[in-house]
Fold this sequence. Notes:
The complex is a heterodimer of chains A (147) and B (81).
Chain A: E1 2-6, H1 12-20, E2 28-35, E3 44-51, H2 55-70, E4 73-81, E5 83-85, E6 90-98, H3 101-118, E7 121-127, E8 130-133, H4 138-145
Parallel strand pairs in A: 1-4
Antiparallel strand pairs in A: 2-6, 3-5, 3-7, 4-6, 7-8
Helix pairs in contact in A: 2-3, 3-4
Chain B: E1 2-5, H1 7-13, E2 17-19, H2 27-37, H3 39-44, E3 52-55, E4 58-60, E5 71-75
Parallel strand pairs in B: 1-5
Antiparallel strand pairs in B: 1-2, 3-4, 3-5
Amino acid sequence: MRISVQDAPFDLGQESADFAAGHRDMGAIVTFTGIVRDLPDDPMEAMEIEHYPGMTEKAITQIAEQARARFSLGDVLVIHRFGKLVPGEMIMMVATAARHRKDAFEAATFLMDYLKSRAPFWKREISASGAAWVAATDEDEDALARW
Amino acid sequence: MDIVYFAWVRERIGLPREVVETTAATVMDLVAELSAREERYAMAFSDISALRVALDQELSDFDAPLEGVREVAFFPPMTGG
């Protein structure tokens, strides 16, 4: 299991290849990548991601451990960036390895649902019209209820 | 006790971290104490339902006791992923 909270960009291909290597008994690997999305009517100059150093790593580790306890997983990878990003840049990725695809897919969804509203990150969108904190949505919170 | 603020809570209060001498028994007591200090605190804490609290870097509740707690963090709902 590897958790990385970093400001530097990551190489999706390299991370995926490294994660896949050495798992002879895992038949399924799922990866999800989050990208900074531009605003449709108000072009974004940057997205700033603030986090709570110390708690962030602990919270993500707890979420990954819950995923391991709940699904039959061989391995988990979570990379989440902070700092200033521009549209099109990769914010984060998760990868899950399991013997079968159902566990790998479900665990990746579980990780994403929890990272969204239980990992201490806050996003701020900066555009020509100003800067605004991204608000959490009811759907984000509701997504946890199904687990 | 160390108190840390993030995102718009940090902006409204105007600082990221401070050390506070307090005898507050619960998070709610601490919020009341801070809110009574200055308008900017009262503004930041005006709607508790829009806030989250972590005690020693673990998510907690506003009615949680503060005994033995070293670091309290206030922030809006998280937007990771």
